[in-house]
Amino acid sequence: LERINTILRHPKRKTHPDGIQNCALEQLKMSICKREDDIASNIRELKKRDDIIARKDNELVLKDQQNTSLKAEIHSLRARLDNTKPLIDTVDLTTEENGRENKRPRRENTAKSSLAILHEGNQNMVRVKWEKNAAEASLRS
Q: Can you give the three-state secondary structure of the chain, one letter per residue?
């Protein structure tokens, strides 16, 4: 700014009789002030963008940490899965060794009264449920 002032005030510089030289100096000062304001606003915008970028970088680091922890958990779960016994080796209810082993036996003793028939039917249902619960328990363990 001082250099501009010295150039404008140089004695060999032609001046206009109406004082346009002073007007030009004021215009230059205003132009410089305006550009300085623009530069300051650009710097503020850049600082805002830098803050946003820093926040996004922090979020990215957190996501990376979560990702690595989840990958480690998946790896440990896969290792546990590889070490477990398959269910087919534990209990296989689908194979038939004697042909009728998985089926319920037929009733050999016939009941004599309707009350005895109901009682026998209830006993069979209880036995089937007990076998079902035992099979499910053996599958779980």
A: CHHHHHHHCCCCCCCCCCCHHHHHHHHHHHHHHHHHHHHHHHHHHHHHHHHHHHHHHHHHHHHHHHHHHHHHHHHHHHHHHHHCCCHHHHCCCCCCCCCCCCCCCCCCCCCCCHHHHHHHHHHHHHHHHHHHHHHHHHHHC
Task: Kindly list the distances between the CA atom of residue 16 and the CA atoms of 19, 23, 137, in Å, as whole numbers in the listed order.
Answer: 6, 10, 109
**pLDDT, tens digit, for every residue of 52-96?**
999 999 999 999 999 999 999 999 999 888 887 665 555 556 665
